[in-house]
Amino acid sequence: MSVHAFVDESARNRQFLLCVTLVEPAHLRPTRRALTELLLRGARELHFKKEKEPRQLIDQMAKMSVSVRMYTGSCTPKTEEAVRQQCLRRTVEDLLETRAHRLVLDTRNERDDHDRRTIQETLGTQPSKTELTYEHLDSTLEPLLWISDAVAWCFGAAGNWTHKIEGLIEEHIRL
Q1: Nearest to 158 by CA among 5, 7, 6, 17
Q2: Per residue of the chain (175 residues), what is the pLDDT tens digit?
């Protein structure tokens, strides 16, 4: 299946959460459009942590043609980057199995180099044979990153928030 994957993360309560939203190519444009329509006047992105009111954003996202995988691992502030890379490595391995076409990660600016190394190591010596391309983008430039942001936030918040995203999460991989 040729899917595109959009990745954002959260860390809360000694747990690192890497959220991957999978979208089939035919659904890319309509899903981006639907997400952009959820923006408040003057806003450039949906960032769940910054939303004053969730405004049923999760309910709207649950109606979209996407699926979500959550990769989690225990961490401390000192081990957070290592756990992120462990989750990312497993994500890339899973994407290669599904023959994913594109991987987009929310940029972390200077820390993007850690991701690049992990991805390159996971792809091995012949990355061109995998057909998986990857890039880091600012979330203001790629609305599909907003779903991963929202789901990761809700998953980390637990309680009623976890219940709201149950229908979106296809798989939870614990590392």
Answers
A1: 17
A2: 689 999 999 999 999 999 999 999 999 999 999 999 988 888 888 866 666 556 578 889 999 999 999 999 999 999 999 999 999 999 999 999 998 999 999 999 989 999 999 999 999 865 566 789 999 999 999 999 999 999 999 999 888 888 889 889 999 999 9
The answer to whether 71 and 91 have CB atoms below 8 angstroms apart is yes
Contact criterion met (CB below 8 Å) for 97 and 52? no
CA distance 168 to 120: 29
| One-letter-per-residue 3-state SS of the chain | CCCEEEEEEEEECCEEEEEEEEECHHHHHHHHHHHHCCCCCCCCCCCHHHCCCCCCHHHHHHCCCCEEEEEEEECCCCCHHHHHHHHHHHHHHHHHHCCCCEEEEECCHHHHHHHHHHHHHHHCCCHHHCCCEEEEECCCCCCCHHHHHHHHHHHHHCCHHHHHHCCCEEEEEEC
